[in-house]
Amino acid sequence: MDDAGMSPRQLATLVRVTSKTIDRWVADENLIPHARNRADAAEALKVDEGMLWPQAVRDRVKTGGDLEIVRSYPYRSACPSTVWGELVASTKEELFFAGYTNYFLFIDQPNFVSTLRGKLESGCRVRFLLGDPEGEITRQREAIEDVALSVSTRIRITLENLRKLGNAEGLEARYSAPEDAANHVSLSVFRFGSEALVTPHLARLVGHDSPLLHLRKRDSGGLFDRFTEHAEELWGRATPVTA
Questions:
Q1: pLDDT tens sequence across 199-221
Q2: Which of 40, 76, 190, 196 would give a disulfide with 212, using CB separation of 3.0 to 4.6 Å?
């Protein structure tokens, strides 16, 4: 018996069976084995996997609009807080936070008010698009979510923190228009110059339980533009926060 517990005859039989299996995979161009099997077969034949199954390799390569997807997360909370911090730190010209409440930024990011103050002092424009804490859609969403930290409370957390910045030049905050509130509450867009984090809100789930896309602009009319233009449209009809 060999080290694997097989007799020479058993080992020879395994080699023949494996060889026939590989021959069958290679002979049928429409038959694409599982990734582990592809890797093993390529190693056995001493060739690159792409030579045997080019379609499988092409399917793994991003094309078109997919090129703008840096990474996707099944939950917003799965995106490391360091990603948010690095995006804020690297943005020089404009930050646009178009979530419905935006409150988690002040919870997850250390000393976020001071960070924003520093960005404003350096000449960076900072915008916050919020839902109206007294709006009908806000009340409806609170009933849907049914959580202790209500939507209106989360908005007011953001407002409280923004008041700490006073009337800093470059800081703007608006409430989305009543006719846009349903569209706003269902999609959060956070823009950091040429990059964005986007969360489409699912059913009854709060923001951190919904998925997130990290996008980086490449071409006009791509995913980045589609989502950020949506946020800009809401901003254009929004009303200034006065208190």
A1: 998 877 677 789 999 999 998 99
A2: 76
